[in-house]
Amino acid sequence: YYQKPFVLWISVLFYTLYLKGTLAQNVSSIGAPFKSKENSGLLVFYSFAETINLFKHEIYINVTGVRELLDAFHYDCQLLPEERKKLEEIEKSPTKLRRPFIVIESNNRHTRRMVAKKLANHMGGLYMNNPPPCLHRFRESFLEHAILKKAFYSLSMYASAVNVTRQWYNDVVVMAGFWHDQAAYSIARTHQSGIPPKESSIYKWPSDLLRPDVAFFIHSPPPRFSRGAPINHVMRKR
């Protein structure tokens, strides 16, 4: 399994360069009952329990969509009993080997999605995205709540992990964006003056979240006009 935090560290580095010079979101003022590694304002979740406990906190449990989201996760995103039984039987078989779980990360979502789809097609595998189908209808439910939005994507990754285990004995699974994506963006916004060293525990992968076998980070420079002006710079001038 993929163990080293290098992909996350390099993702944070490029996100930081991208965000440098902009105003960081003051996440510490949200007032949420949320604790994270090394920075109380960091919106990164390091366990399933941490994610669920935030949703169930009295501040958030009655926010529109939260109860429905939790119900969908527990009833629509889990393995069916017959699926779980079949998976357990397969795991006991010495001749049945699972296929790789590959994650593609990038500072450009379009590039990430395109490469992941092409790689899955080239390998005869299965392409997956986040959030998974069982939670897709909640994508725009928490746009006004920064911490709930982050918690939603954290929960989505655990749901996606279930989908991976459902398929990886049959197909190579290629996913566009996983934990690195959400963690890198949050860490970069919180540490614009200088990111923590690679050895920092802030990059530690959640112990209860499925790990990819390999993760690739694609640095995609911003497109430029013929005169060399970055498009995002020009758009800010308008």
Automatic annotation (TrEMBL):
InterPro entries reported for this sequence: P-loop_NTPase
Secretion signal, residue range per the UniProt entry: 1-24
Alphabetized UniProt keyword annotations: Signal
Protein name in the entry: Uncharacterized protein
Organism lineage: Eukaryota, Metazoa, Ecdysozoa, Arthropoda, Hexapoda
